[in-house]
Amino acid sequence: MYIIKRSFTMQRIIALLLLFSIASVAPAQETALLNRCWSPEQLHSTPKERIIRKHQPINNNPPEQLLYHQPRQPLAPNFAQSIRAVTPANREKLIALTFDLCEQAGEVAGYDGAIVDLLRAENVHATFYAGGQWMRSHPERTMQLMADPRFEIGNHAWTHGNLRVLRGQEIDEQIEWTQAQYELLRNQLLARACATELPENVAAMIPKSPATFRFPYGTCDAIALKQVAQAGLFPIQWNIVTGDPSKGQTAKQIVTAVLNQLRPGSIVVAHANGRGWHTYEAMKILIPELNKRGYHFVTVSQLLNSGEIITAESCYENHPNDNLSYDKLFGRGTQ
């Protein structure tokens, strides 16, 4: 385990200024875009959206806009490591809830909107790691997440490919196509009449591109870490596993798992794509309990700016090498 101290190189200062430009937006304006473009009824979830459906024939096409126009500057070499948590300054009680929105080739994954509705109702900041193909099949929900100042969207690869097995251009496509799909939808949102009527600084609060990346299956190696860092994305893992993809996991067990591993600067991994079991029920218990314990909910990018970043040379769930079997189980992932 390594600690990257909060040394502000010019590169990082520029990156963080871009990440937190939304701070210049007045509080009254923060939700203006979200509320102007969608009614409460349109934002509210529907149970059927959670259902995962097969998609035939498989759509292996790249995004309509293949070349994205907002490339990020490569990160310094010391960021080519898996980020597991942060030690906030003064041990401030910060926590980053993250929800994966993965979608494999040949399916249309779900949208667990009850979780999103809960986060909005409780004014909880969170990060959603969206696959590029998920964003393509859920354009309206993606734009709603973009427009909500409580939320951040991170890159979760194009079709949930296993970047520990893929190589070269295959890895680049998983990363870059997702960046391109995000930019495509951002441009479409900002071109709508509901957005063009607002002041420019309100539109500017939506990041031009995702700044962080989560590896599908939570698997990586030195080659994949280097390519993600070269793409200008912070590789984000976690230090708390909810285990919500397991059908046998109860809400109470999820709550216990989180609270037992809780520490300031934690990153929690869960799912909101129809593959998280009892996640919503667990969050209904966790959010008030964490508030009671004095924790503040932040996005991953906000957490990265709060103190010393804790990294590892490899990607794992709870202990080094505990996910090596995934390469045999999932192979190249889906493409």
From TrEMBL:
Assigned keywords, A-Z = Signal
Q: Secretion signal: which residues?
A: 1-28
Q: Does the keyword ATP-binding apply?
A: no
Q: Which residues form the NodB homology domain?
A: 93-298
- Coiled coil residues, start to end: none
Keyword set includes Signal? yes
BP-aspect Gene Ontology terms: carbohydrate metabolic process
Q: Which PROSITE patterns match?
A: NODB (PS51677)
Q: Name one GO molecular function term.
A: hydrolase activity, acting on carbon-nitrogen (but not peptide) bonds
- What protein name applies here? Polysaccharide deacetylase
